[in-house]
């Protein structure tokens, strides 16, 4: 008898799934605003491109430190309390921007960003397995990609806020006043979201990874217990995620610089184009989610990784608008990578799913290292800095291309 095709999620999860999806929007706003802060700190605090890359070090470095504690907290206190902890840390970090702006201290800003990012790391650790558990594991790839599509929405909002508030004439842009006011508002919004979610009732959840309902699994192999690091697909997923976020952090950190130096745009104009690139990422996720109904997730990941290798080569040539369009398309092809790597890494891990989620989130620390390295090259030639992400996309391509060998329980 032919099995019924599983839905994206079930009716009893609609409210919770909508709320979890909104967390991805908040994450997108915070991450892309960090890229606007890069250029603003270069302008106002007179830091170099390489040193401004330490903004990403503060943000993504928090993931390396907070990943495991967040996973342990989630395991002991559940998804809902994990979300509340993440939102509270997010709001606290945003409010710390006030004394940082008053002190006009780059290092104080990095501390504030670190606290804020500890909240983001907690939300990342919780939200992905949370979204994956809200339905059948056979649709977990689609569910996580759908939720991540709204991360793209946040990614659009963040650069627009940067363009109009930080770089525009909405507030005073000659000092740190605009940054201070902006993050007070963000902190208040996030704290309000936390308050509302504290009253949301979360239905009892049975993690589909634990009950092993994945149709890819080979009969008779489901109950073979392995230690977490014996699962090659999980280990390679954590490595791929490190390089994935490394590429993302570097590409986004110097997007505005690229527009300013290669196409002679103003910072505000480049920030608006950064928002356009985020629209392309959001569109890419919706298209990717649709295509996964017909193309296996690991195959689509390999195709998109290869396309980004080509895009990076074009960007590095500084061919004017041709290269700038390729820079925009990097985000389109980047779109499915984070959630797909995450979901593929969690498959068939049973009760070790939450622990694995913590380690994959720690892979986000790649974004702490790469922007500084790209910045060293960007200080001399902004275009040539985009050769570096090719290494990252080659690793992601390898993970996707060899996925069936890494996880033999997956059917071709």
TrEMBL record:
| Tree of life domain | Bacteria
Give TM regions: 12-34, 54-74, 81-102, 108-132, 144-167, 179-200, 234-255, 270-288, 300-320, 326-344, 356-374, 386-404
GO molecular function term, any single one = fucose:proton symporter activity
Carries keyword Membrane?
A: yes
Q: What GO CC terms are in its UniProt record?
A: plasma membrane
Where found, per UniProt? Cell inner membrane
Q: What is its main location?
A: membrane
User: Which residues does the UniProt record annotate as the domain Major facilitator superfamily (MFS) profile?
Assistant: 14-408
Which UniProt keywords are present, listed alphabetically?
A: Cell membrane, Membrane, Transmembrane, Transmembrane helix
Spell out the PROSITE patterns in the cross-references: MFS (PS50850)
Q: Membrane topology for this entry?
A: Multi-pass membrane protein
- Family annotation (Pfam families): MFS_1
SUPFAM superfamilies reported for this sequence: MFS general substrate transporter (SSF103473)
4Fe-4S as a keyword? no
PANTHER family in alphabetical order: L-FUCOSE-PROTON SYMPORTER (PTHR43702)
Return the NCBIfam families for the record. fucP
Q: What is the recorded name of this protein?
A: L-fucose:H+ symporter permease
Organism of this sequence = Mucilaginibacter hurinus
């Amino acid at each position: 008898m032919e099995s019924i095709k599983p839905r994206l999620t079930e009716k009893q999860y609609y409210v919770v799934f909508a709320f979890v999806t909104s967390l991805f929007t908040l994450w997108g706003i915070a991450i892309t605003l960090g890229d606007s802060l890069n250029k603003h700190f270069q302008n106002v605090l007179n830091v170099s491109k390489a040193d401004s890359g330490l903004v990403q070090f503060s943000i993504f470095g928090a993931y390396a430190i907070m990943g495991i504690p967040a996973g342990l907290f989630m395991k002991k206190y559940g998804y809902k309390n994990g979300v509340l902890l993440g939102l509270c840390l997010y709001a606290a970090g945003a409010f710390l921007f006030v004394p940082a702006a008053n002190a006009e201290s780059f290092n104080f800003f990095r501390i504030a960003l670190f606290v804020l990012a500890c909240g983001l790391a907690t939300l990342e650790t919780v939200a992905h397995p949370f979204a994956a558990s809200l339905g059948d594991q056979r649709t977990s790839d689609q569910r996580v990609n759908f939720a991540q599509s709204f991360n793209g929405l946040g990614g659009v909002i963040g650069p627009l806020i940067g363009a109009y508030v930080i770089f525009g004439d909405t507030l005073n842009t000659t000092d740190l006043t605009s940054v201070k006011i902006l993050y007070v508002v963000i902190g208040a919004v996030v704290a309000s979201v936390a308050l509302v979610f504290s009253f949301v009732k979360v239905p009892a959840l049975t993690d589909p990874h634990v009950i092993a309902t994945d149709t890819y699994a080979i009969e008779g192999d489901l109950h073979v217990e392995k230690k977490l690091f014996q699962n090659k697909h999980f280990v390679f997923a954590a490595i791929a995620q490190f390089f994935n976020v490394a590429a993302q952090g570097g590409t986004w950190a110097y997007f505005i610089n690229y527009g300013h130096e290669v196409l002679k745009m103003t910072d505000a104009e480049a920030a608006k184009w950064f928002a356009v690139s985020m629209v392309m990422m959001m569109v890419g996720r919706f298209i990717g989610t649709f295509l996964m109904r017909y193309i296996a997730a690991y195959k689509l990941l390999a195709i998109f990784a290869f396309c980004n290798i080509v895009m990076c080569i074009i960007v590095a040539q500084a061919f004017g608008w041709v290269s700038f369009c390729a820079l925009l398309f990097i985000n389109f092809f980047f779109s499915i990578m984070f959630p797909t790597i995450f979901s593929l890494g969690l498959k068939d891990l049973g009760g070790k799913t939450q622990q694995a989620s913590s380690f994959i989130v720690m892979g986000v620390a790649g974004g702490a290292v790469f922007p500084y390295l790209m910045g060293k090259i960007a200080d001399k030639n902004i275009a040539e800095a985009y050769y570096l992400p090719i290494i990252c996309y080659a690793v992601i391509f390898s993970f996707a291309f060899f996925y069936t060998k890494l996880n033999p329980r997956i059917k071709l």
